[in-house]
């Protein structure tokens, strides 16, 4: 990871020497790290000139990926810190996979910045299990991606998401010019999330609303990351959160396939026991997730 940080600093500072100084290492060590990185990737990333070090065309592409990796690592560290505090937490939170991967680290980090005295435990599961934890009083606040709000719970919209159909570049659909028909999609064996996940429920309801029939699972997997990897490997098409595959679509590892007549948009929600007003850290966390910063009980 230090080599990636060094590469990003070269981009920002325009000099390998300045980047080395920023990291507190000698320039020969920095040069050796960059040479090792270039050898590992099989690419020339830097062009050494009298004015300093300039990124090559490949270097400009790789540095963008490196920045994303470093950002994800920071989110991972924040999330892991929350997980370590789970047993003795003052604030108990559960989140479904998509929310835990793409939103919770930011919210947790912001709460910890504002309230460093608060210890928060974060459990990650599918939406169905998150609802069970909230209903049983085992967590103070839950985040789900289910299409509907379970009875007995109050909720608040915290984000919007959209599911997309994706295939590997080698799949016949990747070269298709016309959009898929809903019935054609429903009749195709798909890589899907497990029953109980919000993604699975959203897909099933959307296909039913379009009159397309029932979902045909080919492989069932327990996380968006596993579904993404299976599609890249050529296992089959999948319907997955756009958030989970945005980078893959931009880089060409996956191809999006359009579908006519199916609404795959969804609302991501916070949920808590109905009839209870959130107080203290739970209310503060909810406020951080909403645009207007108010934590109110919605029906």
TrEMBL record:
Keywords: DNA-binding, Transcription, Transcription regulation
UniProt keyword Glycoprotein present: no
Any Pfam family: HTH_1
Domain of life (superkingdom): Bacteria
InterPro entries listed in its UniProt record: LysR_HTH_N, LysR_subst-bd, WH-like_DNA-bd_sf, WH_DNA-bd_sf
Domain annotation HTH lysR-type: ranges: 1-56
Gene3D superfamilies: Periplasmic binding protein-like II (3.40.190.10), Winged helix-like DNA-binding domain superfamily/Winged helix DNA-binding domain (1.10.10.10)
PROSITE patterns: HTH_LYSR
Family: Belongs to the LysR transcriptional regulatory family.
Name of this protein: LysR family transcriptional regulator
Organism: Saccharopolyspora halophila
